[in-house]
Specification:
The protein has a single domain, classed as Carbonic anhydrase (Beta-carbonic Anhydrase, Chain A), CATH 3.40.1050. Helices cover 48% and strands 10% of the residues. A five-stranded mixed sheet has the order 2-1-3-4-5, with helices on both faces. Helix 9 crosses helix 11. The longest helix has 22 residues. The radius of gyration is 19 Å and the shape is globular. It starts with a helix and ends in a 19-residue tail after the last helix.
Length: 264
């Protein structure tokens, strides 16, 4: 196991060197500018006016000779659902977005490590946690908690257990004696905030970049019925960060511990 971990760390190290060499001096948009690019892209998609940028042969050739750190302006944590492809939703192309997709857009170890790579090495100025309507993962957890669940394959429960606190908050906020599927949209929104909180709790590196103003973290929800992205209040993200900063159990070290001897 240690050899595997060390090997992965070496891969990231080498990729980081390449990124720093090729993209260290590239001018990126500010966090606010990057967010505006995403908003404009989604507006084009929603209106059926997508430009489909950066997918021509010139861009393809660039991907083999240039660093993504010279181009990518956003890291997106989205759901694996086939209805929610970030590059299409935001009318983006090759090397524009650093995308992490996982069922339920959760932020657990693998996703958080990928986020850290996106914001620290690919140097994207904005990070979006993107939930979506009719999310199957959030619906499944809601059904499980309210007694309507069914048997799941062995590896699914530990995948979606991060969603449970979000669903429980949604149920509490709804103040219903009988909780039906009508609570799912609220749970989807709460799950975006839960992912942001999980990220901040376990990633001191991300918190540091946000506090420095180098990265903006934004929550959003994609409407599968219309194609439009709803942007959640930025104040709520600020409130989550403030709360996490007061939590004594939050991760404090932004860097990994030394890997040790690879031969052991």
């Amino acid at each position: 196991m240690k050899r595997i971990v060390c090997g992965l760390m070496m891969c990231f190290f080498i990729a980081g060197l390449a990124t720093a060499h090729a993209g260290g001096n590239a001018k990126k948009p500010s966090p606010a500018e990057a967010l505006d690019i995403l908003k404009q892209g989604n507006e084009r998609f929603y209106r059926g006016e997508s430009l489909h940028p950066h997918i021509d042969i010139k861009r393809i050739k660039q991907t083999g000779t240039e660093s993504q750190a010279d181009h990518a302006y956003a890291t997106i944590v989205g759901c694996s659902d086939s209805r929610v492809p970030p590059e299409l939703i935001f009318d983006a192309g090759l090397m524009d977005l650093f995308v992490i997709r996982v069922a339920g857009n959760v932020c657990d170890t693998d996703e958080i490590g990928s986020v850290e790579y996106g914001v620290a090495h690919v140097r994207t100025p904005v990070l979006v946690i993107l939930g979506h309507g009719q999310c199957g993962a959030v619906t499944a957890v809601t059904h499980a908690i309210t007694g309507k669940g069914h048997a799941l394959e062995a590896n699914i429960p530990p995948l979606v257990d991060n969603i449970e606190p979000a669903v429980k908050r949604a149920l509490k906020q709804a103040h219903w004696e009988t909780h039906g599927d009508a609570v799912v949209p609220l749970a989807i929104e709460q799950n975006v905030y839960q992912s942001i909180e999980d990220l901040f709790m376990h990633s001191a590196a991300t918190r540091d970049l946000v506090k420095k103003g180098a990265v903006m973290v934004v929550g959003a929800i994609y409407d599968v019925n219309t194609g439009r992205v709803k942007w959640l209040p930025e104040k709520n993200v600020t409130d989550i960060l403030t709360r996490v900063e007061k939590n004594k159990t939050r991760a404090m070290n932004p860097m990994a511990e030394p890997a040790g001897d690879v031969h052991h």
